[in-house]
Write a structure and sequence with these properties.
164 residues; mainly alpha; two-stranded antiparallel sheet; 6 helices; elongated
Length: 164
Amino acid sequence: MIGREHAPHSIYTVADHLDAVLAAAEDILKLGRGINESERIRLELVAITHALQARARLREWHVTDQALVDAAALFLAGTAALEAKRLNATLHPGDPIGISEAYLIGEVLPIGALTDLASAMLDALESVFVLYDNETEIENESDGDATPPLCAPEAQATLLARME
C-alpha cells in the first residue's frame, strides 16, 4: 500500500461500475447454455449499462498518472462498440445460445474482451488508489470470498447517518 492514496469518490464510482460489469459477465458465463433468455438479456443490459456508465465517468477525468491514462484510453477504445446508436438483436427465441468467452455482449463485443478490459482498468485503479480500506478483513470472512463495498466509505457514512 506504499505510495497509494485513498481514492476520491469519482474513482469509487468507476470501480463500482467496473465491478458490476464483471459480476454480470461472470453470471452470464456461469449460467452458460442453461440460461433463460430473459435473464441473459437482463444480465447483458446490466453489463452494457455499467460499461457505458464507466465510460462516461472516465471521460470526465482529469488525471495525470500515465498508467491510469493508458488504462482508461484502452477501456474507452475497447468498449466503443457499446455506444453504437443501435445494437442489433438478431437472436430469435429458441436459437441455441453458445456462451463462452467469445459470446458477444450486445452482439458487438466479446464477453471475454469486456471482462479483460474491466479487470485491467480496475487493476490500474488499485495500483494507484486504495479502493477498500478493509480488503484484509473482507478476505478473512467465513467463506474467504472478497465482497467489496458498493460505495465509497464517505457515501456509506452518509447513508448510515440518514438511516438513523
